[in-house]
Description:
heterodimer; A: mainly alpha; MetI-like fold; 13 helices; 0% strand; B: alpha/beta; globular; disordered C terminus
Amino acid sequence: MSKYIVRRLLWMVVVLFFVSIITFLLAFAVPGDPAKSIAGTHATPEVLQRIRTELGLDQPLWKQYGLYLWHLIHGNMGYSYETQLPVTTAILERFPATVMIAVFGIFFELLIGIPVGMISALRQYSVRDRAFTALSLIFLSLPGFFLGMMLMYFLAYQVQIFPLGGYEGWTAPLYGILPGLTLGLGGAAWYSRMLRSSMLDILSADYVKAARAKGLPERTVVWRHIMRNAWSPIVTLLGMDVGWFLGGVLVIEVVFGIPGIGWQAWNAIQTQDLPLIMGTVLFAALLVTVSNFVVDLAYTWLDPRVKYS
Amino acid sequence: MSAPSTNATQAAGDGRETLVRVEDLRVHFPITSGIVFRHKVGAVYAVDGIDLEIRRGETLGLVGESGCGKSTTGRAILQLIRPTTGRVLYEGGDLAHLKGGALRRQRRRMQMIFQDPYASLNSRMTVGDMVSEPLLVHKLADRAGRKVRVRELLETVGINPNTLNRYPHEFSGGQRQRIGIARALAVEPNFIVCDEPISALDVSIRAQIINLLQQLQREFGLTYLFIAHDLSVVRHISDRVAVMYLGRIVELAENAVLYEQPMHPYTQALLSAVPIPDPVAEERRRPVVLTGDVPSPVEPPSGCHFHTRCPAAREGLCDVEGPTLKEVRPGHWAACHLITLDDYPHIRAGEDDLAVVAEQGGEAAGEGGETA
């Protein structure tokens, strides 16, 4: 098991290395001149040249990447062109807002998705099941920005329950509810569909019949025998969502004006702030690989048949 | 379409009392259509009017082709599938109308052993948890008592009691089936439905499980409904055998009688298909080959369900009216119009296809004629 963990950790480094190469190349493939966006369109050629020398932009690409990697290994993700702040600081400063949205998003996904999925499976083809199926389809196909704006219009503008947008720190959790709900409704649709189908598979299994034949109350049959076997797809989805949400869901952050890492990355893309873009992408990739790793470890705990070696 | 329940008791003439009595049991699964507005468009007549009596302490074999409804019958008796109509009397009390707690309490008395030992054990529970769970719900023992009992049960079925903290995937198919048996025995049931308990096992292990089941029956006075499609296994283990075809019972008799003197054309065909482990006899064996497939239980044939494939079927009789299960001779029940006709022995002797069967069970033809 420990061997497995070490191997997985090494693979994570490899994955991040390739992510860094790809983002680096893509960032340079984008037309435009970072020096120009820093100095402004009216800068003299001398100024531009000086900026390029300072940032190392006049060096060959492989040298620039090598230098970047060297700094990265030492924990330095570079400095933002725009603010001159270390990229690490910039990301960590914006991270709490992103975390709040992610927490609310996952909370709503589970809160809505799990009961809906369970009811749908246990009452297959009932009126409720069919209503949930229809609603899931709607929420699966609604784009996040549209759903976000609708929620904002009805629950923050027409009926002023929640703030329109923004972020006031963790002490004002009300700001996280609408963005969280936007993420959560779409996610809950996925969760409920996955849970429904995995439960339906299990419902017809012989060991569930055996559990009923034992004379167990239905509640025990559902929780101890069915649900214990039905969690796997939920855990898989959860692992992906944790990584994805914490990486900053750009659209949601922009719609609700939340100063998280997603919004920051959005600005960085517009100003061609290469170190910040690179840093955010690498950071998000790290979160995704870590949460995938955690999910794989969780399987061993959830399912005694899973053994890694 | 109907096979009305018979008044005479199948257990008559035998000293043993009836433990389970099934009256006009029907299980119809609705077929629905439409996504938004679901409506019933038909039904699968899986079990279509069954009358059965299972005596205390006996093994009643239930045989038939795949899809004839034998497993559904077993499950409906245990109320794992609720019957559409009909009664299931356990020691005189109707199970089909029990609900909730009352039904759960009765479940102590009857258990099931499943066909597939891989699908019938919850892979996320340890063997010990699985076997002790029924003790917990029925409050049969306290914590310490449960531990002792689980070890005892595992030992009874031949599983090392020290493996109780292991998970099902750590056991072989035969061991898993033993664990399933231990789980069924935990509540000290009187009646066990064995739903093809050996057909998913390796041939080398089958005999072990059969012997275990027989040993347990002697030890605990169990009553079995033994569902199988393997005729020789059923012959080995059963006291009486019931033959099912398309949701109905066509013949029921003592083990020896049914195998030696089958009366129903379907039973005769079924038995003639069993190879004989004797080259000379095997050479002479002329199986009755039934033409066509088993009809769909969605649209069962009119009259006698078997008339579409019966080599002796009579137009205007078999395709019009469904025969009832009648006691043709003491303890021998059959549902066939032809048996009661005066010329039934001639049919059996005259029909080329059936001749060999008549030959095999020579006296059957004669005796069948006498009773008619």
